[in-house]
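It is worth pausing here to work through a concrete case rather than discussing structure prediction in the abstract. The textbook approach is simple: state the sequence, then state the predicted structure, then interpret. We follow exactly that order.
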Amino acid sequence: MVEELDQLVDEIGALQSKLLLIIGTSHGGKTALIQTLAMKRLITPLNVSAEMAARLAAFPPKQRHLQAVNILRELADQHAKGDLLLLDNLEVLFDKTLQLDPLDLLKRHAHSRRVIAIWPGELNNSRLIYANMGHPEHQNYSLDGVVPFVI
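Step two, the predicted structure:
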């Protein structure tokens, strides 16, 4: 499976939006897959939730949403290897207090580099879903501008 992913990572470089989302069930091997790809490509995946939470903690809660986009950009620049960025643990991006559109944010990063990210939700009827309907962080997106890699 890592060979298929590795080949697809090379192929998305020609696309306008170079966003590939690894999608699968909880405990289905997504992190292990991205770690294997990372070792093969000699790159360290960015643990978005851990790194952003650490940086955001330096700001008062009411200012964190103003800093979130810049912090993610800085972290992405630090963790990218060439034009490749691997992302895991995206859950912090869905925090309503940060006032972000997580998928749009990922797509913006994927215009200038290949972004491989683990989607923290599910794929249902060609829709990317995060959290259950009625949950405050619920999101429902189309696959436009996304290359799904389902495991």
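Step three, interpretation. Residues 2-150 form a domain with the Rossmann fold fold (CATH 3.40.50). The chain has one domain: 2-150.
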